Amino acid sequence: MIPLLRSRTMWTRKYAFLWKRTASSTALNSNFDTNNSLLWGTAAIAATVAIAAMETNNENSKTKCSGIAAVVGSGSYDARNFLLEGLDILKARGCDSAGLVTVSEDHTMNMTKFGSGDAVLSPEQVIALVQQHSQAAKGPVGMAHTRWATHGTRSDQNAHPIRSGKIAVVHNGVLHNARLLRKQLQGYGHVFETETDTEVMAKLIDYYYQKLQKQNDPSSTPHLLKAATEKALRKCDGTWGLVVMCQDVPDELVVAAHGSPLVIGMTSTGGAELSSSTRSQPVTYVASEINVFRRFTQTFVDLKDGEVGVIRASGPILESWSSLRVEALDDSHQDDDFQANTIPEPYPDWTLKEIYEQPEAIGRALGFGGRLSGTGKILLGGMDAHRDQWKHVKHLILSGVSSSLHAARYGELLMKQIAALNTVRALDAVDTDYHDFPHDVPVHTMGCCVVSESGERKEALRVSDLALTRMGVPCISVTNSVGSTLARTTKVGVYCHAGRERSAVSTKSFVSEVTSLALLALWFRQTKEEEDASTKSRLATLDVEALKESLLRLPMAFGMALKAHERCKELAAALEFTDTCFVLGKGFAEPVAREGAFKFQELASLHAEGLSASSFKHASLALVEPPIMYRQRLKTRMVQGKRKKTERMKTTKKKNVAGTPVVLILLDDQHRQSVRNTGMEIKSRGGQVIVITDKPELAAGLDDNPIVIPSNGPLTALGAVVPLQLLAYELAKVRGINPDSPRHMSKDL
């Protein structure tokens, strides 16, 4: 047995024993039936997670987001070490360029930066180049950046930091009036070397810095760099999280935020510095997310929107400074594996590792039984602490983007099924606006729930701000990132506790979000019944109990679903040359179908559509091609930039290419006949139907070798995401794509 899994198994067995003892004690003290499944279910969660981990081991024994990290130290402090670690953390969000710059006390500025270029290097390769070529970057002050190209190509020149004269900057955001400002600066004689909007900001700050130096304005002398930055930003229209360095001032940085978050980490002792020789030196950190510096300090300050500040080793200098602004992270919420494991052993890559970690991630989302007590009561600390505010909410808006939106849509269906609220709507955060909130109900009965894995997605932050400030509606967050901007903004929510995701695609965080939303649905239903006993009905009670039972079985169900891996490998080999695919489902299976298609797009660079099985036959059915037409089109497809018609045809014939592939989630529920009818129509038109089902008999006449998942009540459909993830993963592998860093992918959910 693999040591990592052995230790987890022993750990969970230990807690299973403790929970069993607790459950027994509770039953004896309350005259509760000790045979009740819910009572023993809490202890069973730990056991199922352990068994799922062992199953995972057995299977595998065969086997647009930019980021900023900056620091101001003093003396012998080596900023480069922190900056490289920061780049390593930020790369999980995806990047196509990276770089760092340091300035020493003798005013020497050293910059190293690389873009992936036409070779499309992975984030790991780009950062390895930065590490290899930045040996000369010495000094206690520095800043680093990971870039996802928006203005300009993925070249070395366009990578950040961007320098102009004595000024260097790193920037998150978009400058809307960059073209106009560029023309004005060119009129002043400035020559641009990059295509980026960030260079416009760098040259604008440099322009005002030189102008202030010539004027020698006494009022600007103490913070000349800050004054120049403020003057430049008054000319800018857009969003920015900005850090500015000046060669003349080697002991400070200037920071500014407007629509893009920056966080300042403070410590008077340097926290857990990288070497013992620096522990007595004060250090101040700046980052676009807390995770960058949380290993070194838990104390931080959010830079306010529109604020400009000066950062020194002793701490920040902010105009609206107050000790009340200082916040501290609760260390008990920090994920155990945040800094653990720098390689995905025993798995070949992080994506597969995180797919196989899903049973444990679900257990963590359930608090290993702590959030679903033996008596069936839902315990959510954040919601319980704000119960008086949320008990009146009857109308809820769920909002998310990409995978988080799919999770929100599954949560919407669960909330509707158990009648947790009067109305629930799941909306894409990209399009959510003021008019989407109900205007014919009292404000105190409205609520908003924003779902975001990172807690940093700008669309998610915009929705939370819209709800809290413009609508005056309470807002909660479902996020995997403790201390994220979203979590700090809403101040109440449900943490997913999925553990850190290093792959560029979301796997375990998606299922943890659905699990957390299921708990939230049960909490709202529970609160509703406690406030008004007349709302309790036999039908609703049956639905509630079914959902609780499904949650208890969910870790084991996912462990069993992982057994479909071998079948997914076979299918991936057969689908290697396909260029389009559909994934269909209905009811609870529809958001899972959309998530599955999303994974095909992300991982395998395959055009895929996730749709309702009922709506598919109205228009999309026309896109289904029989084998002859499909094979004829495939023969002219581009392969690595070269046409290989003859070779292509031989390969596709050898593999017996079928018609257009359609993955059908066909479950034994109220939609089975409708979904099966859709499958038969696809089959009759020559399409290749791949069935995922919890009842193999339903696949008769559609798929002779269906993928079978365990039946698990209202969460059965959620289990279908496992074979979809595995199929997308294996398809990426046979196509020669690195699943950890797919093409054009950034992680910002």
From TrEMBL:
EC number of this enzyme: 2.6.1.16
Reactions that this protein is recorded to catalyse: D-fructose 6-phosphate + L-glutamine = D-glucosamine 6-phosphate + L-glutamate
Organism expressing this protein natively: Fistulifera solaris
Superkingdom of the organism of origin: Eukaryota
Keywords: Aminotransferase, Glutamine amidotransferase, Repeat, Transferase
Signal peptide boundaries: none
InterPro entries hit by this protein: GATase_2_dom, GlmS/AgaS_SIS, GlmS/FrlB_SIS, Ntn_hydrolases_N, SIS_dom, SIS_dom_sf
Gene3D superfamilies: Glucose-6-phosphate isomerase like protein, domain 1, Glutamine Phosphoribosylpyrophosphate, subunit 1, domain 1
Domain Glutamine amidotransferase type-2 positions: 65-314
Membrane-spanning parts: none
Span of domain SIS: 386-530, 571-742
Entry's Gene Ontology molecular function annotations: carbohydrate derivative binding; glutamine-fructose-6-phosphate transaminase (isomerizing) activity
The name this protein goes by in its record: glutamine--fructose-6-phosphate transaminase (isomerizing)
Record carries keyword Metal-binding: no
GO biological process: fructose 6-phosphate metabolic process; protein N-linked glycosylation; UDP-N-acetylglucosamine metabolic process
A Pfam family that the UniProt record links to this protein: GATase_6
